[in-house]
Amino acid sequence: MPKVPSFSPVLKNLTYIYEENLNKETEFGGSNFGGYPTLKQRDDSYDIRESMSVHCGFVKGTKPDHETGFDIDNSDLLQMEQCHGVVVASAIFGAFDNMLQPKNISKYSEQTVCLYMFVDEETKSDLETEHGLSDGKKIGLWRIVVAHNLPYANGRRNGKIPKFLLHRLFPNARFSLWIDGKLQLLVDPYQILERLLWRKNATFAISRHYIRFDVFEEAEANKAARKYDNASIDFQVDFYKKEGLTPYSEAKLPITSGRVEDT
């Protein structure tokens, strides 16, 4: 592991915006969990500065404690704060996916990498019936963390919370690797980090979708699979079009895809 992470501006003072009594019909998008930022506030949040205030989940608290919209037991939070190196995380909500154990993991990784699976109470019940749950809250290599009082009725939306906010769930970790619930980790985490981040001195890596390279094709596939309400998908696609997004083609090279995989 590199002694010093790749260069990034240092954020020293961070606060979270919680606004009550909003006229939500006039706000663009958002939710009670993530707040209702305007497009300007959203754009400003990408410009890292020493002091910032952002809409970024857990808006009723600075960490995923109680009554924040993604509640986690204190014993789990304490363990998560002890993760200082690499965290590998995944999530299954609504018992939608089968839990897949990582393979080809070195003994060193088993001892030093934090592997966490976030679930809801329904999924936990199914896992206990199928696999049993050890005293250490582990099934195989995964440590199971149950999230309570979830903000969305849709399990896919709840799954986006740990995916996008790992930096707040694991505030002391230096590197994180997200694995979608339907996927299986088949390579040692350190090999992935070395190849995609450390070798290139990069701060972020994301994989292309293995089938579709176009956002608009993905939207139609989501409709066919009934993943979300069609009207909400159309609303989002219309927004992308107004912002200037066009269908993917080779004319956009060296950009090789307009659509990424959930890792």
UniProtKB/TrEMBL annotation:
Residues 14-258 form the TOD1/MUCI70 glycosyltransferase-like domain. It comes from the Eukaryota. Coiled coil: none annotated. This is TOD1/MUCI70 glycosyltransferase-like domain-containing protein.
